[in-house]
Amino acid sequence: MSSLLEMTDVPMRNILEKCDFKSVLTLRKVCHSLRNFIDDTCFKTDLDNICITIGPNGFSVTCSNPDPFWLHGIEFAKDCTSNDLKIILKLVQNSQLSYFLVTTNPDNVGGLDDLEEILKNQTRPLHTERFVMEGSGILKILPYFDSKALKKISILPINYGTNGQNLVGIEKFLELEQFKNAMELYINNWFVVRADLSKFFHFQRVRVKLHETSLEEHVALKEAFVTSTHMKFFELHSHGLDENKLEQVFGTPFHDHPLGYSQWFFEIQNCKEHVLRIDFAFGGIGFRKLETKKVPQDAVVQR
Amino acid sequence: MSVENAPVVDVDEAAIPVEKKMYYRFESNDKKEFRVSELAIQQSETLNRLVEAMGYTSEDVENKPAIAIENIDGKTLKLVFQWCEHHKGEAIPVDDGSVPKIVEIPEFDAKLMDIDNGLLFKLIWAADYLNIVQLLNVSCKKVANMAQGKTPAQLRRVYLLPSDEEDEAAKRAAQEAQDPRAREVEEEFEERKRQGGNSFF
Asked: Minimal Cα–Cα distance from B122 to chain A, Å?
């Protein structure tokens, strides 16, 4: 055997799976035969993180394997065309990623539509544990992620947006399998979401700013928390949150926090190791599963 | 080659008669013969199934002809069996689909694979053919490591790969070898083009 090309498919795929991602992209440039094999074969790569920036002159892609922190990843492509991105994403679709980030430059023209088109034509959904993207654009991209693998979703503020903007298309977002199956959701407080609070009860951890919430909804959230085995953290911001109103339903608050938080403690059903702590300050309310031993001595844990 | 003269690969002769271990005889395509322990053979799924199916006794092993492995030459098979003897009794890794697959190359394997790339590719081919999972893993890892930080031109040299032009020429040659008429047709077409025509008819 005189050349790597004479290798049969199984060892060839084995070799490619053991190559770092940059080497795979370089191997594609060596000859037609190898390029065709890489493009036509389903194999996994060592990629862990990928960051796609949609810029005015095309796409830039930064990737890294699990060792270095993602910010120090290698830039594989700068200002590349959608065809180049298609090739990279085709290789990525077989990887089990930890992190997938998409950022957009305000001067980009149709880049998000191009990305959506590429993802639409992939043979399998992208497999990542965490997906981070700016604003409502997430709706175009999110359906192309494997809903069973996706655990965390973060929606960042758009860099040219303004505080208090509505998250457009939230109704569709709430119906996606990816939203329903995820365990953590962080929506930046720049966005105001118009949705029922109960839509978010299935998350382990969530941060969201709702347009408006009623006192009944806060009680429902507290009840969900004390009867749940999965809820760990719920940070809520909304109009009309008022300590006096909260006192009516949660009782007299405990004041011991250096920043002046009002706090309430509640037992969690069938759980002695943890309690629910509710913090209220600066117009936001936080529900947190807390180790029982961390409850201040003077605080009353309500039933 | 007689049984007595066959190269014995990494075998502890003193241990053989005591435990009455079974040593199978294999023959490469260039008629080199090897004696390999039963335990070492277990590293190869293909050979293990083969010897199980044959059901040889100790006498059969000595009296019947060596088992022919027709696709692998002696130089490669020697490396394969040296590896199997060294790693005999070790668990065979199961592919659980996890990625990235972390494969460390042990010192013995690194020394064994300190060979030219042509032979290394043959070793990989043999490991795949004989279904020796861990040998395939370490040898593929070695080849994958060679790619790190290389340019396409360097990779072409390392992996003995043809350029696109050479690749095309090789494909054409293979096509022609399969169909001798192809060259004639191509030549006829070129001739007609030179004459200004653009049709065969």
From this structure: 6
pLDDT digits 0-9 by tens, A206-229: 999 998 888 889 999 999 999 999
Using only C-alpha atoms, chain B has a radius of gyration, in whole angstroms, of 24
Cβ distance of B144 and A18 shorter than 8 Å: yes
- How large is the ipTM? 0.74
Cis peptide before A11 (omega within 30 of 0): no
Residues of chain B under the 50 pLDDT cut: 1-6, 10-19, 196-201
Provide mean pLDDT across the span A22-43: 85
Q: In which order are the strands placed within the sheet that holds B33-37? A: B33-37, B23-27, B67-68
Q: Which residues of A touch B103 (CB under 8 A)?
A: 18
- Which residue pairs, CB below 8 angstroms and at least 24 apart, start in B16-21? B20/B58
Q: How far is B176 from chain A (nearest CA, A)?
A: 19
A29 in reach of chain B (CB within 8 A): yes
The DSSP code sequence of B164-176 is HHHHHHHHHHHHH
Distance CA B77, CA B85 (A): 12
Task: Dump the DSSP string for A163-177.
Answer: TTEE-TTHHHHHHSH
List the 76-95 stretch of A: residues with Cβ below 8 A of B. Answer: 95
Q: Which fold has domain B15-153?
A: Potassium Channel Kv1.1; Chain A (3.30.710)
Interface test with A, best of B124, B137, B154, B164 (most A CBs within 10 A): B124
Cβ neighbours of B151 in A, within 8 Å: 26
Q: How far apart are CA B33 and CA B149, in angstroms?
A: 41
- Answer whether residue A79 shows pLDDT above 80: no
Q: List pLDDT tens digits, range A121-177.
A: 888 899 899 999 988 788 889 999 999 999 999 998 876 666 777 787 888 888 999
| B121, B140, B156 member nearest A30 (Cβ) | B156
Can you give the residue ranges of every domain in chain B? 15-153, 163-201
The enclosing H or E element of B49 equals helix B45-54
**What are A228-271's pLDDT values in tens digits?**
999 999 999 987 777 888 888 899 888 877 777 889 999 999 88
Q: Which residues are CB-contacts of A81 (< 8 A; sequence separation ≥ 6)?
A: A58, A59
Establish how many alpha carbons lie within 13 A of residue A17's alpha carbon, considering only the half-sphere containing its beta carbon: 26
The predicted structure's pLDDT at residue B15: 45
Please state, rounded to an integer, the average pLDDT across all residues of chain A.
Answer: 86
Give which of B122, B133, B143 to mutate to test A binding, by max A Cβ within 10 Å: B143
